[in-house]
Every structure is written in structure tokens, then in C-alpha cells.
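Q: Predict the assembly, please.
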Amino acid sequence: MENKAENPSIPNAEVKGPGKLARMFLTLYDVYKFIARFFKEGFLPPYEAKELFRQCYEIGYRSALLISTTGFITGIVFTKQSRPSLSEFGATSWLPSLVGIALLRTLAPLLTGLIAAGKVGSSIGAELGSMRVTEQIDAMEVSATNPFKFLVSTRVLAATITIPILTFYTAMVGMLGALLNVSLSEGTSARAFFQASLEQITFLDITASTIKAVLFGFTIGMVGCYQGYNSSKGTEGVGKAANSAVVIAMFLIFIEEVVSVQFFGLFRS
Amino acid sequence: MEQKPTLKNTEKVIEIKELYKSFGNYHVLKGVDLDLYKGENLVVLGKSGTGKSVLIKILVGLLTPGSGEVKVLNQHVDQISYKELLALRLKVGFSFQNSALYDSMTVRQNLEFPLVRNQRKLTKAEVNLAVEEMLDAVGLLQTINQMPSELSGGQRKRIGIARTLILRPEIMLYDEPTAGLDPITCLEINSLINQVQERFHTSSIVITHDLTCAKAVGNRVAMLLDGQFQRIGTFEEVFNTTDERVKPFYDYNFIQ
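A: Predicted assembly structure:
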């Protein structure tokens, strides 16, 4: 039988943790590596097509009802609130085009992004966080499967694909809300309403909205996955992951909105 | 209870030399040396927080060693590429303390998951057969369409072991296989670990602080104390001591 002597001496120097600023840069570097890993591994075989479709369905299905309700109400409220200002100038006939442009350029992408950040981002953060805490991600690792590919790549791609679709759906539902209000107040026909609202919409509006929605989707998926995948141990870590996934995604969406408005404004002038 | 004999095989499947691992100021492993021989069950005993789980997580590359040499099936775990590590992990099964079943998948999907991703040429019928055979081997074929939340603790452990075995690993690492289970279920799990050794010819490291389990499944026992293996040998050799750090383990399990 082997019987070892007392412990060898271990260097017991104080290990100081990094300072606040250093920690911030370390986190940024960590985020950069996470995003780089997505682009490096996300598009290479083997593909997790089944999981990707499942995630697209989940994201769409999970947000559809809330988005329908919010979009419809926003259409009604925005039309109702805009009418007094326009009627002062005798320009209520501009309502359909105003609503169309507002919805497509800003309201639909922003509303969809914020709702999805709350619904989808938190759900991804909590799901992956809980998988981390219960060692399910480690279990994937040790069974020679790449959990990043299965869990992160599929969810980020699904969010990036689905949010633009939901954005146009929100715009459509919002227009229906606006149509209801306009037809009840002014008696405008559906044909006249859509003709007036769509003729002001340009190719640039559609392109800008699509790009913004893609960016929002990518942000929501990436932030949710990063927070969940790297969540700390314990149930508190899961809650934190879900919460920060929403807060950070919403914050980034507003910043992206401001930047993209400035950027696409350059093409309009 | 019969104590298992020490095996005579000298072929090493795991070699650990002078392994150190710290978390900040907390030194967990302080120069660990350990060999696992082909075909044997080695039980690692120790108090909670002594680094038993850390040790086996280093073996599968879930944690990196601070310093020292860790060879699994003649490969330095910390020096190989990620692709090589994935290939190595196919040969090393890891059974988690809390089973770590994928709770959004049924039992069938849990077992299919590693199989279809690592053996892509298998037909659907072959996958089904492999899953059913493995569930039968752990005596839980009837749970095939159940969700993990519908299973008992012992059943979850068995399914976790089955999911690991479906890749036919050469080495099995069990992290606290009997933790949180009633005594009867513990005996069933001990028997399963022995069956796995005999039927699948695996070499295993079993992490536990349950001496009944250690005696039932271990060809050798290693006692992790103060970051090092202080005593390694048969169950009797390890506990035939007056060492005050070792005696309480035996007294608690067999005298209390």
C-alpha cells in the first residue's frame, strides 16, 4: 500500500483579483470571443437543422400572441393620438401614410425587438442558465458533442431569422389596428387606406427595417445565450442570467435604433 | 459484504502525476499521483470539498490542471486539440452526481442525443435498437417515453449511466453515484456499477463518500485527504489504520 507523507509546501501567495476596469475589459474580450466562436462554428457542418427549426417555431410561437396584441393596440392608439395634430392643419387624409411610415420605419422593429427581448431573451437566458447549473451543458461536452453548436448557434440563428419575420407581422397587425380606427372615424375603405399608406413606403424603408430587425434578433439571441451559457452556479445565477439577458438586450436595442436612424438618415437626405 | 479483489492488470489507462489545482487562494489538489489500471474499479474517497469531483473533471477536460501531468489513454488531456479531446471523450464516460439528464427531452431522446451526433451513419432502426438494448441493460426499458421529471432519483442515475454507456466508453467516471439515494437503491446502483465493469469491460473511477459503495464496487480504494492521496490500497488496507483523519469515515459508515 502506498502511504504518502505530509503535504508538500504549496506556494501560498495572495492572489489578487483584477480591478473593476480590468474586469470590464476581460468581460468585453470574453464577449468578443463568444461572438467570434459563433461565426467560426455556427455555419460549419455538422448542422443542427432540426433544432434550428424547433427554435424558430418556439421563438415565433412564444411571441406571436403578445406581438399581435401589442401591434394592434399600437396601431389604434398611434392613429388616434396623431389625428388631433393633423386635423389642426386639415391633414387627416395623411393619417394612413403617417401610420405606415411610422410603423415600418421604427415602431414595428422597436416594438418587436423589445417584446422579443423580454419574452425570448429571458427564456433563452433562463433555459441555458438552468442547463449550466444542472450540468446539462457539461454532460453534452463530455459526450463528445459541441454544446455551443447545439445550444448557442441554433438559438442565435433562430432569433436572427425569426425577429425580422415577426417585425413585418407586427407592422401588418399595426396597420390593421390603424385601419380599424380610421375606418370607424373617417369611413375610409381598406383599399384606400392601404393604397395611401403603402405608396409612401420606399425600398429604403423596407431595407432599413429588415437590417434593423436582423440586428435586433442577433442581439437578443446572442445576449440571451451569452448570459445563460456563462451563468454562475446556483439558482441565483439562473435568475441573474434571465434578468440581465433582458436588460442588456433592451439597452443595446435602443442604442442600435439610434445608430441605425442616424445611419439610414444619411441615405434619405 | 464481500470485498472485491485487487486486479493483477498492469496496463495503465489513466496516469496522474504531481497534479495541482487551485481556485484563487484555495488549493484543492496539492500534488496528486494516481494510476488507474485497465479493467479495475478504483474508488476515490474523501470529505466534501476535497477535490474529488475536480479531479475527474480534469480527466475529461472540463477543468484544466494547474500543473502536473494528466494522461488518459496515453494522451495528455491538457495538451491535445479540441478535436482530439472530443475523440478522447468518446472513450471516457462521465456519470454526473445529479445525473444531468436533458430535462426537455424524453428518456429515448436523452440516449439518442450522444449516439446520433457521434455515429451519424447509424440508421433510425439501429439507433432505436441501441437505445432499447441499453435501457434494458439498466433495467428501465419501460421508461423509454417518459420525461426525466417523471423519474425517481435512482432511475435518473440509471438513465444517466445508460446515456454514458451508449457510446461504449473504455473508462467510466462516476461522480457520487449513490448520493441522495435510499439504501436499497444504493445497493442497486452498486450492483449496476459492477455489472457495467463485467459486461462492458470498463475501467472506472468512482467518486464517493459512501463506504458501503466503496467496499462493494472498488478493487482498490484511494483516500483523498488534504489535497493528496494519503492512502491507496484495498478497502481493508486503507481502513486498517489509527489515522485520526481516516477512522471517522469508517466509524460513521459502519459503527454509527
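Confidence is low (pLDDT under 50) at residues 1-15 of chain A. DSSP finds eight helices and one strand in chain A.
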